[in-house]
Amino acid sequence: MGLRMKFNLVLFVAICAGLAIAGVFSNKLLNDNAREEVLQSARIMMESAIAVRGYTVKEVKPLLAVQQRRHFISQTVPAYAASQYIKRLQKKHPEYSYKEATLNPTNPANRATEWETDIVSYFRNHDTEKELVGERNTPTGPQLYLSRPIKITNPACLSCHSTPAEAPETLINTYGDNNGFGWKLDEVIGAQIVSVPMSLPLKRANSTFITFMIALVGVFVLLIILLNIMLHYIVLKPVSAMSKKADAVSLGDLTVEELVIKGNDEISSLGRSFNRMHRSLDNAVKLLDETIDDE
What we know:
Helicase, Ruva Protein, domain 3, about 60% helix, Beta-Lactamase, 8 helices
């Protein structure tokens, strides 16, 4: 196996190892960034829904307090207001969703599904947890969900949700007296859940990863070509020339021309040493011939 082949073999193994390491880390970094991008979108949606809830409680509900006594107005319910806000967002982004999933809701539309029930149960069993992030597969692709517990911390909420007898008549007339009661103070009754699709950010991350790896392979190919050119002119060509002259000298041909040496690197130093050896050997042979002639 020649020196060039050995050099390229070692270089190939090193490049493959470098590509593998770079691929693993860059792929993880790009996917982590994509996930963080999705999570940031989910947080914005969550904070927007919370802002709408706060606006409804502080601005809308007091304005409609009198009308609320005569008939129930859904717009005064924070959960309803937040859901309607998200519905308008879904007209352009139908894959985004927001739900205030509740175990025992007043409005049946807010009843938690099986996977949402698991989230609510998690918060009920982990009272100190304020947020839960996870991923799930859906028919439209993977989605990231961000959830926060809905906990009864305001005693005023129990005026509508403790017992049917204490609830406003307008609420009973609208939703009946079978759901949304029995809530207790400091109890987790549900969870705010925002779901954001991951398919597009992941697709962009994969596209960026492929582009990066192609560019990296291109750089390594260029590097191999340049290193081989350097290897040829700096090492292989001078060594090959020395090898041919060494063969000629070893066969007794001392009339070969000396090597033309340029530079001050190790190969040049080896060439100058070869020239000195050639001259010394030539002088020694001439001296020996003269001694023989004198005899």
